[in-house]
Hints:
Layout: H1 2-6, H2 13-44, H3 50-99, H4 102-108, H5 110-132, H6 134-152, H7 154-201, H8 203-208, H9 212-238, H10 240-264, H11 270-311, E1 332-339, E2 350-357, E3 362-367, H12 373-378, E4 388-393, E5 396-397, H13 403-409, E6 410-413, E7 422-423, H14 424-428, H15 437-446, H16 450-455, E8 463-464, H17 473-485, E9 491-495, H18 503-516, E10 521-525, E11 537-542, E12 545-550, H19 552-558, H20 560-574
Parallel strand pairs: 3-10, 3-11, 6-9, 9-10
Antiparallel strand pairs: 1-2, 1-4, 4-5, 7-8, 11-12
Amino acid sequence: MIKKLASYIREYKTAAFLTSFFVALEVAMEILIPQCMAKIIDVGLPSRNGGYVVKMGILMVLMACLSLFFGVSSGRNAAKSGAGFAKNLRQGLFYKVQELSFANIDKFSTASLVTRLTTDVNNVQMAFAMIIRMLVRAPFMLISAVFMCFTISKKLTLIFFCVIPFLTCGIALIMSKAMPNFRKMFGKYDVVNRVVQENLINVRTVKAFVREDFETEKFNDASGELYTYSIRAERLMNLSSPLMQFSMYTTILLISWIGAQLVVSETLLTGQLMSVFTYVQQILGSLMMISMSVVMLSMAKTSADRIVEVLDEEVDLKNGANPVETVKDGSVKFDNVSFSYSKDENKLAVKDINIDIPSGSTVGIIGGTGSAKSTLVRLIPRLYDVTKGAVYVGGVDVRDYDLDSLRESVAVVLQKNVLFSGTIKENLRWGNENATDEEIIHACKLARADGFISEFPDKYDTYIEQGGTNVSGGQKQRLCIARALLKKPKILILDDSTSAVDTATDAQIRKAFREEIPGTTKIIIAQRISSVQDADMIIVMDDGKISGVGTHDEMVKTNKIYREVYETQTKGSEK
């Protein structure tokens, strides 16, 4: 884990090294200053040598200034290396997320990935800053101060060797009890983020159904659980402070008592005792820093584990050894295909599918809710891998294609239409970043979006709010269709993508498809019979299986499910 995270320091290694280097020099100055003070008290003052006192005083001031300079330098380099490390780590995580398949993302959940990219990275950044500063400063200070005490009085130094094991065991016990609560606490961060994310994204639905109280209660429950585990962990960690204070004051009292006896017996000078007191403060301060660092590192370890879990996640969709770069045509073939989201053959969402779709044809897919219509088409651009069988596009198994090349040839307008914050042009150029204004307008005319866009004051430069909240559902669908058309795909998949437009507009879109993109294979999932009745082939799905395949007339005669839907919708329209 440490090696994995350390690889993200990269170009900030020099700054990290300089941080530790300057910290070491700062500590060296702080260690030498008490020696100068002791010499003033034990040598300069008894001999009334003013020149010596001034000389030592100037030397102390110079050392203090150097210590300040080294401290500022270490702080600047620590800030640079810490922020840079976090930047690289956050980028690495984000790039990894971009590689993850739908199945990988389902495993972690969106809210959890957001927490890992934010809270967890911040915790690891703080731990890194502590490692290159406090965990260099504290041990170096501790060892140096103990050594200086040992050169002054071995007897006084033995006191530390009695206190340090007691303090170490106490902190270790506290940490062993606190760590499980920290792990649970970070898990609850995921829950809180998920609740907040769902509420903000669906805030209009929440208000429409007057469910603010329900959402507030749900948030309070999640926040309350986070509070509970946070309090448990913090209560345990707060025990380290009184433990540290007890150790510190016990040490000072023992040194004061024994040191006074040594001064009286003239085996220890007053200035030396004063320097020992300074070193005591430095030693106990170092122990305090180490204990604080242990606390932070313990919290950061949980975050680091969660980050590395994502970085080490095996992406289940990869290119083969020699991937095919070109998709020949838009033909699609399902060869005895079965699929399970959990990769369990006993829990199949799609079962034994065999379909042969010629290139350039129009295919309609219809079926009840949960019949696996969307699941079936997601296998074509390899958003998921089949559990059994094979899907062929252009006569080649989709697993043999370069993923980018395959998905560039397949445009999918998913059931949930998504627009990003930015202008209409910027959103449409997701389909083709190099599309000209003429190509954008042409695609919008095919999708019957040009009409309402032209009515906006800023037309194609109209700003779309996050999620497309300032356009209607039908307008959003047509913009998403236009975006897909700009890819000039060999296969166009519309997953219930015209449900929010009226039947006349739906018919115009289908007519434009037939006339303008005859060579593109068009797969239309719909709930309305009118959206698919002109298709070359209609597939009826039922419980993950194909119930029937044929033209509209054939399906009305031979397929019970299709006929019932047709008759229900026809009677409804007649009324």
